[in-house]
Please model this.
Amino acid sequence: MMNQLIEFALNHWEMVAVFLAIAATLIFVETRGGARSVTTSSATNLINDKDAVVVDIRPANEYSKGHITGSINIPAAKLKDSMGTLEKYKSVPIILVCKTGMTAGSNAKELIKAGFDVYKLQGGITEWQSAGLPLVKK
Model:
């Protein structure tokens, strides 16, 4: 079996190299110290059990069309400048919410560096809505 694996690797070294590059990239991205993803049910548990604060980083016009009850709207572009506002929430988890869950992770890095316990909502507000969970409209 091992001899076949070695023979395959030697005969198809390009495929093996691409596989290793993809694996290394995936490992690098996953271990960079970004925010942990939480599902809608895990987020609900964090909110109910640990008084987690939901920070919606979508633009104000999107936020007003529907947001999670009790969430705070700090658009992504203003997040770095709003660290002082969030300082009072350092002792509780913070759940970042964007539209689809794609941009919350990159925005979480500054908060993590500042010592916050940060999570990102997997699938964003779109997933929250798809799960039939309530949204408040402003």
